[in-house]
DNA sequence: ACAAAAGTGTTGTTACTACACCCATGG
DNA sequence: CCATGGGTGTAGTAACAACACTTTTGT
């Protein structure tokens, strides 16, 4: 078994870490928080934050604990498990499984992050370590799907927002043009967003003041559960 | 750390197993293959087949290897990862993570299974061991969602089928009435099924001979990718 | 008055559901 | 010729996209 000789010879059970792809819309682009590795393997490449479990801890609590060192946990508005990667050669010379999470941070917050971490646009990733590039792209696909049939936008939008702002968030995450007009009607009819009654003052060039909205809940709800084959009645 | 004292005191990293909820439509009901435990804990309760990884093996290959001892692997038409369960007390006295898979066996096959395993209707589960009852129900929800927006029916239907037969499969998995008329049009328009040109002879009571269909591919394809918020044009 | 930004009304389309009706076979 | 099971035709509908139009502001 040559590939286990360096570190793990004799080991009968794999190591296990939790990772997170933390997304935020920054500068009108979907970005992910990456950490620049200081050690081999993959020194200088960018990797997802995470680390090992300690006893009596779930994977979810573990990734939240590790994230607390990179980004304030209270700022992660949504966290969900993506899957577990188990290719034997995903980590050179080390048998390690990784369970990856998708984390979302609302727009407008600027978390204090350590100097060796940086936000990177998901559609322009740098060289990534291990299989982390694949994981980031998988996380984006999960997010794109859920934007369509759930209220997950609450975790990317700021607490209150105009519809133009919400459209910008959706466009950044989906990667194509979205109509604010129709987005409003979809989310209102589903009961996902509600008007606050406030208005946002227009910019220096004038314009009608925008209504201010908020998401009704800050927990994931599937608002359009079945695409087709709905139950009768 | 009282809960780790029996087996794992001093262990710094969790054990890991792969499990599978293998579903098949039998007697017009969605059923799952369960194994009756002969040992404590949960002696006499029913559990999902699976087991530990060996070095140089992915989770997927591991669960296929374990299933080969319960049900012929070639009969599993579809396999996908559901998630990893990590509650510290999910296994009494033992720190163990479990990655669960959904497996589907086409209708009509009757795999030879060992005497300590049995098929159980998913909507009438017996007492289950560990968190396996939760996993089975989660697997059913995953299946129900995918039946709606993908061609996953190929893995539950027999190789060729009439539309009445396919409707029965969908009804068993979804748990509500489905119209064969409309099911046909949905799956034909999406290009998921195609007519073979053959016909099925009617039963003793007569009736028009049924057209015979097949699924075009035996690989999962998302046939209705976005419920709403489709890309423009 | 006019440009800018936001909101509303309306039409058309698609992809379904529901149901009436028609077709082919066995007894 | 009728019961049985399968297939087709068609109307109704919900949820959306597209776009013209209206409203409210700043200069």
Overall description:
The structure is a homodimer of 233-residue chains. In chain A, 21% of the residues lie in helices and 27% in strands. Chain A has 233 residues and is an alpha+beta fold. In chain A, the strands form two sheets. In chain A, strands 1, 2, 3, 4, 5, 6 and 7 form a seven-stranded mixed β-sheet that branches. Chain A has a three-stranded antiparallel β-sheet with strand order 8-10-9. The longest helix of chain A is centred in the middle third of the chain and has 18 residues, at 132-149. The first copy, chain A, starts with 14 loop residues before the first strand and ends in an 18-residue tail after the last strand. Residues 1-10 of chain A have low confidence and may be disordered. Chains A and B meet through strand 5 and helix 2 of A and strand 5 and helix 2 of B. The first copy, chain A, binds a DNA duplex (27 and 27 nucleotides) through helix 4.
Q: Which key features would you list for this structure?
A:
233 residues; alpha+beta; Nucleoside Triphosphate Pyrophosphohydrolase; Arc Repressor Mutant, subunit A; 2 domains; seven-stranded mixed β-sheet; three-stranded antiparallel β-sheet; 21% helix; disordered N terminus
In short:
Two copies of one chain form a homodimer. Chain A has 233 residues and is an alpha+beta fold.
The CATH H-level homologous superfamily of the largest domain in chain A: Nucleoside Triphosphate Pyrophosphohydrolase
Measured as a percent range, the helix fraction of chain A is 10-25%
Q: What's the SSE pattern of chain A?
A: EEEEHEEEHEHHEE
- Portion of residues in beta strands of chain A equals 25-35%
CATH fold field value of the largest domain in chain A = Nucleoside Triphosphate Pyrophosphohydrolase
Counted by DSSP, the helix tally of chain A is 4
Secondary-structure class of chain A: alpha+beta
The domain count of chain A comes to 2
Instruction: Tell me the major beta sheet of chain A.
Output: 7 strands, mixed
């Amino acid at each position: 078994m040559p590939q286990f000789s360096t570190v793990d010879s004799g080991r009968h059970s794999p190591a296990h870490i939790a990772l997170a792809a933390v997304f935020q819309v920054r500068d009108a682009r979907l970005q992910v928080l990456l950490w620049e590795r200081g050690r081999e393997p993959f020194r200088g490449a960018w990797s997802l934050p995470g680390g090992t479990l300690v006893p009596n801890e779930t994977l979810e609590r573990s990734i939240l604990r590790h994230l607390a060192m990179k980004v304030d946990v209270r700022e992660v508005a949504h966290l969900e498990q993506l899957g577990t990667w188990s290719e034997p050669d995903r980590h050179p010379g080390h048998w390690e499984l990784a369970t990856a999470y998708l984390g979302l941070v609302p727009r407008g917050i600027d978390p204090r992050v350590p100097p060796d971490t940086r936000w990177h646009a998901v559609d322009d990733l740098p060289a990534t370590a291990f299989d982390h590039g694949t994981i980031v792209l998988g996380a984006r696909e999960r997010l794109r799907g859920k934007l369509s049939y759930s209220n997950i936008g609450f975790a990317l939008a700021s607490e209150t927002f105009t519809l133009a702002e919400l459209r910008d968030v959706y466009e950044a995450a989906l990667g194509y043009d979205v109509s604010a007009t129709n987005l409003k009607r979809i989310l209102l009819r589903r009961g996902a967003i509600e008007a606050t009654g406030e208005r946002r003052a227009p910019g220096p060039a004038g314009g009608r003041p925008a209504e201010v909205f908020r998401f009704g809940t800050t927990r994931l709800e599937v608002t359009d559960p079945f695409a087709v084959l709905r139950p009768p009645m």
